[in-house]
């Protein structure tokens, strides 16, 4: 399952830029990978883990702007199609990065 976060945050004032940077760093620190500018994705194991990530996002949301969350299955995500451009990533961003202990 993947959680996709879409956000559009204001960056006019210095405080808004700090808030944007703080939220973006939180996403990266939480294991999200950038798909496009202001679109980040994270793989989670199940619905319970997704709910935990949702709670974490709610606790760390910025004070202004818009943040949307979407959960999709891996099958649904695999059906996404690049219409223009190329997918470029040096990050292993699929089930192969999961480690079972």
UniProtKB/TrEMBL annotation:
Homodimer, forms a heterotetramer with a Cas1 homodimer. This is CRISPR-associated endoribonuclease Cas2. Keywords: Antiviral defense, Endonuclease, Hydrolase, Magnesium, Metal-binding, Nuclease. CRISPR (clustered regularly interspaced short palindromic repeat), is an adaptive immune system that provides protection against mobile genetic elements (viruses, transposable elements and conjugative plasmids). CRISPR clusters contain sequences complementary to antecedent mobile elements and target invading nucleic acids. CRISPR clusters are transcribed and processed into CRISPR RNA (crRNA). Functions as a ssRNA-specific endoribonuclease. Involved in the integration of spacer DNA into the CRISPR cassette. The lineage of its organism: Bacteria, Bacillati, Bacillota, Clostridia, Eubacteriales. Its EC number is 3.1.-.-. The keyword Metal-binding applies. Its cofactor is Mg(2+). NCBIfam families: cas2. One of its GO terms (molecular function) is hydrolase activity.
